[in-house]
Amino acid sequence: MNRSIRRVGVVAALMFFALLLNVTASYLVRAPGLLDDPANARVQQAQFDAPRGAILVGNTPIVSTEPSTGRFSYQRTYANGPLYAPVTGYYSYLYGRSGLEQSYNGQLAGMEGTGLIDRLVSALTNQPGPGNTVQTTLNAKAQKAAWDGLAGRKGAAVAIDYTTGAILAYVSSPGFDPAPLASGDLDAEQAAWKAGLADPANPMYDRAGGQIYPPGSTFKLVTASAALENGWPLDQLVDSPAALPLPDTTVSLGNTSNCGGAQITLEQALKVSCNTAFANLGLAIGPEKLKAQAEAYGFGTRFDIGVAGATSVFPAGLDKAQTAMSAIGQYEVAATPLQMALVSAAIANDGVEMTPYLVSEVRAPDLSIVSQTAPREFGRPISPVTARELQDMMVGVVAGGTGQTAQIPGVRVGGKTGTAQSDPSRPNYAWFVGWAADPKVAISVFVEDARINEDLIAGGRVAGPIFRQILGALR
């Protein structure tokens, strides 16, 4: 009898232990996801009644929390809201979260980055502790210069420290103010949301990394990379006719300027942005190698920088005409300004592409470091030799080619202009991507409406001066 009772006792003890283990594991594994779920009304109410952590640029809070006498105990405030909106996102009772407010919600709400005992106390009392502070990598001067340069036009600008991957500027224009969405006044939140969605300028779009566009002639950097990586000699000539009949079509591709002869070098082709030369180069290389080179730079990869991003695309299954057009950044090639900044960054960094990031560290309320972002490689899309050859070619574009508006006296600057024309019903897109040797920064500028004739190099005239303005702010 005693033996039977002991057996029952052992089984009961084991079951009780298993139950405790399951509860503990469920809390540790499932709780963060449940607490971070915007649909969890109980947690959501508690978070709006708790002091949420700040988001900083340098030592200045661009998002903070203040005591409130309104619906909730605390009010989220946004300094220069539209300027930083694509980074910070919004924090709304009705519409949830976006940007860093979403990706770092657990840290900002004080639910992560704390000890187990603190988390248990917080959960039992339903009172989240003070939130952690999120430190961004942004440079306030560069951010403001990019915003001012775009001047309300639809477009974007991204600046990256190409030695680390730290994002120094991340601007989408026009912007929106997150403050009304975080007001706690549900009628005001609803009105602001509807107004943002109804605005034909789409201010709630993240044009810097959340939308893809035809990159136009800036993609010629990728085509040139593929050529050099596959053994194309620098002194080998490529056919550059005034018009190139596209294979198996009745359409001819023309140039926007005089390429300098019926046959020119790769350096000259990049300097004057010769369409027919690069189309012929793409046909010589082939679509598979073009696609492989684009993917080595990050096309097909969604970069997780803390804000919702789009994936840049190089199409598959191309025929000859489509290959020729893709080689000059047309047809169905589409990229984010972030992606094109990374192409320029890899070239400037001797072929090493660093993974981009927006947050350098997270600090607890006692200023102890909770987490830090360490720079890491994304890949090596081109060799150091190819990178240095492309650097010299890009310097030539700025010194005496289509990118002269990006010149800064005394600074070695390389760049590439772009004008994208993929739909007759919309204006031309203007691009400029480039880098500087000092400071070590790569910059991509995109303007959705170039507002100039399509036979002009829109990237140099429209986007180049914005590039120079951002670069000047970082010096």
Please describe what this structure looks like:
There is one protein chain. The radius of gyration is 26 Å and the shape is globular. The chain has a domain at 216-359 and 375-474: Beta-lactamase (3-Layer(aba) Sandwich). The model has no long low-confidence stretch (mean pLDDT 89). The strands form 6 sheets. A 6-stranded mixed sheet has the order 3-2-1-6-14-15. Helix 10 (266-272) packs across helix 15 and helix 11 crosses helix 13. It has 16 helices and 19 strands. By secondary structure, the chain is α+β, with helices and mostly antiparallel strands. It starts with a helix and ends with a helix.
Strand and helix map with partners:
Elements: H1 2-35, H2 41-48, E1 55-57, E2 60-67, E3 74-78, H3 81-88, E4 91-92, E5 96-97, H4 99-103, H5 105-108, H6 116-125, E6 133-136, H7 140-150, E7 155-161, E8 167-173, H8 186-198, H9 220-229, E9 238-239, E10 243-245, E11 252-254, E12 263-264, H10 266-272, H11 275-285, H12 287-297, H13 320-326, H14 337-348, E13 353-354, E14 359-363, E15 369-372, E16 377-379, H15 384-400, E17 413-420, E18 429-436, E19 441-447, H16 458-474
Parallel strand pairs: 1-6
Antiparallel strand pairs: 1-2, 2-3, 4-5, 6-14, 7-8, 7-19, 9-12, 10-11, 13-16, 14-15, 17-18, 18-19
Strand order of the largest sheet: 3-2-1-6-14-15
Largest sheet: 6 strands, mixed
CATH fold name of the domain at 216-359 and 375-474 = Beta-lactamase
Terminal Cα span: 87 Å
Q: C-alpha Rg, in Å?
A: 26 Å
Shape: globular
The CATH class of the domain at 216-359 and 375-474 turns out to be Alpha Beta
CATH-derived architecture of the domain at 216-359 and 375-474: 3-Layer(aba) Sandwich
Question: What's the tally of helices?
Answer: 16
Helix content: 25-40%
